[in-house]
Amino acid sequence: MKRKKHRGKCILYISQYFPPEVNAPANRVYEMAKAWIGRGRKVKVLTGFPNHPNGVIPKPYRRKIYMCESISGIDVHRCWIYAAPNKGFVRRIASYLSFMFSAIIFGLGKIGRVDCVIATSPQLFVAVAGWIISLVKRTPFLFEVRDLWPEEIVAVGAIKHRGIIGLLEKLEIFLYRRADRIIAVAEGTIEILTRRGIPPDKFTLIPNGVEVDRFARGRRHNRVRDKLNLNGDFLVSYIGTVGMAHKLDVFLEAARLLRDTPRLKFLIVGDGAEKHKLLRRKHEMALDNVLFLDQQPREKIASFYHASDCCLVHLRRADLFLKNIPSKIFEIMACGKPILLGTRGESKRLVSRARCGVFFEPDNAGDLADGIRLLQSRPQWRKRLGSSGYQFVRRHYSRAELADYYLAVLDSVMEQKRAISTQHTSKPVRHAQCETPRPVSARRRVGCEPWQERTSPVVAA
Question: What count of other Cβ atoms lies within 10 Å of the Cβ of residue 426?
């Protein structure tokens, strides 16, 4: 397929989250859209007014029901949303539903012509808006599945009512079946949904990645250490959402076990549903070796990684999370820092293959404390782990190359939809002409699918 014929095509990307919000969905949508703009496409993003995770809309966006702005060449359409903090099931569902209805109204009334629609989770109702908009505009509908809903909110105990869970599961399957293509960010998502009856040929695996060059430049002794008076300390950091899935109680318990270790500090950077509970626990346990900071702007995140000696990635013990790969893993690798990994499954296989971290049993503070001691006592080995992760992520998970492959998939889906719509009025197009292309630039990383290779579960030793 010639890429030239698709120049000027317009892509609508629907996501509840977008910068200045700082989370994995916002980052992925922004970076993909920016890359596609650079390749000659027009990209429109339909999103809400920023308020994640604390439910507070910044002043420039308040008292508005709709606005359009340009960010890095992307036409960003923001629509009204019920702003709610990232905690409490009822208020969060109200926020999700408000965005769904608002996105449908403004997506149909303000967006104009588009050639395909992508709706990205988390939160299932975004896909409802995407499907309806694509139906009215007669365009392909792609459902990008980051987290499995409602499985994830069930796994963390946020919802227990079987009737509601059943309704959400029926809606989930309905949307998967209506999608022209399902974009999965983890292999495990494909395995789960295939077992539930979704045809395998509906899926394309496009994992998360990272803008390597933006994260790679930095020094350990920087302004973060100066400002926090951490020079000379060994710093263990967790940077990201402080949510129910991450169960950071284990981080505080490890800090308690290591409280008498000199020059050792623990840092949590971020906000979320569990932060206030963790702050209370810190004061109850009198942990002077633990620091908390609020969520930081996206452009400052790399400096916190670089200031750290090792970084935590932890997910609570649940079968569903065996299929997850937190996007912060790629950012830590790009910064050349070793990973303290407290999760099994796909994440463990990835870190094992990259030889860039130390594994500890999820929810096991003693095991985490042992891993910290090990990294603190072996600085040269720590450096080798960080270097290995950096080389691996640059080779296999460059966001730019993943964006190229994603664009090839979009072109293929649009061409296939066009062929189907015209087959009754012209000579039928052979199916082979509509298959997902494997461009040379993407074949090395995506066609060969290095992230799918099965490896030993032993993390770097």
Answer: 8
